[in-house]
Amino acid sequence: MKRIIKYVIVVLVIFSAVFTASLMGCGSNGCAYSCGIVLNWQTETFTSTSAVTKIDLDTVAGEFEMEFYEGEHITIEYPTADRFKYFVKETNGTVVMDVEKDPVVAINWSNCPITIIKIPQNLALDIKIETDAGKIIFASGNYGKIEVDLDAGKATFGEITCSDFNANVNAGKVYAQSVTCNNAYLDADAGSIEVKKMDSVNLTAQVDMGEIEICMAGAKTEYTIFASVSLGDCNVANQSGNTQKKINLEVDLGEINVSFTD
Fold first, then answer.
1. Coil, strand, or helix at residue 189?
2. What is the pTM of this model?
């Protein structure tokens, strides 16, 4: 019974995420209730004034790009309009970016400027992101702890090194070219996560009705694997490895595919 309730909740979350995304796209399609609203976007710039260790980003939609540069401060170039405003503030070493949007307005995002987040090359920041239907692009480089929570959005990573890598997707998509970290946690409700190369001492991956595909660095014999499968599919089984590396997998109705570089 609990499993059935869980699946119902997942389906409702997917419907909510897709419905939210459709509302955001309806402005460009001229839906009657959106009035085809095209906002007059302006670009503002935030520059940090003290030592920063974390960026906390809460988005609705739009496109965000992170890049490293040779400067000394974190800068964020972001769009704002009369009926949609981002608020950026700096508190106790954390840059927080939040949004205030007219709840009855479906926005046409076609002419919305990209938000550019510039990070000094010598900083390995913690990054926490929550987005409904946005697109996040992470540049290759070094980070602290990464936490990404997507409803119907998409996050793309280059070749990154971080302390911890946490990705949770409802109906969204995460793609990473390469991730090197101590600990990784991947959770796909009905979305998908693909990591072309994962080098992690401890990996935990869970799917409800989603899909996860990972290529782990090294040989399969290096990993102790724990795999629990209900009604889904998983291409690896329980085994003992010859190193301290561990993989924990849990599959309900979805699918996990794990491969190895060696």
1. coil
2. 0.85
